[in-house]
Amino acid sequence: MDTLLSSSSSMVVRSPLPPVRTIASPSKVYSAAARFSSTPSVNGFRRNHLQLPRPFTSSSVPKFSVRCGAGVREIKESEFQSTVLESNRPVLVEFVATWCGPCRLISPAMESIAQEYGDKLEVVKIDHDANPQLIEEYKVYGLPTLILFKDGQEVAESRREGAITKAKLKEYVDSLLETISVA
């Protein structure tokens, strides 16, 4: 059983419940405020004794990149004409960014597709931030975006945005290759 004491000497209350809050006498509150206001300030802010989290520095911020393996090649705007539009075989273009989480998620699946379909299909990546003219020209609004090109033209209904599993990516590529071989 807890005991609640008051600053007046005549009142003692016994209760089976724990106290909800502790109230100091007015003189203690004012003296605590006076002590706080006399705390020295640093750069105009009152000093407290809590350790604040340190801000990120350039050396502590993790760096991400979307790396290309053996099957996927990263190209720039200057290479787009010769690599994609003038290619004699279909080219799957993946628009990505280093800051894009879904782009990093599908990167291994894209590597696998590039290796598996290497004789039928070329796979390239284009960095969203480094190639703004291509992004504008092909109206890439979401990342990652996949577009299949054949004979210098975007294949109708080949555009796909967002992350995709390896199995679904394989189905997507198979259906595209079937569509362009029939046409």
From TrEMBL:
PROSITE patterns xrefs: THIOREDOXIN_2
Taxonomy, superkingdom: Eukaryota
UniProt GO cellular component terms: cytoplasm
Signal sequence segment: none
Keywords: Disulfide bond, Electron transport, Redox-active center, Transit peptide, Transport
GO molecular function, one term: protein-disulfide reductase activity
Thioredoxin domain sequence ranges: 55-178
Protein name stated in the entry: Thioredoxin domain-containing protein
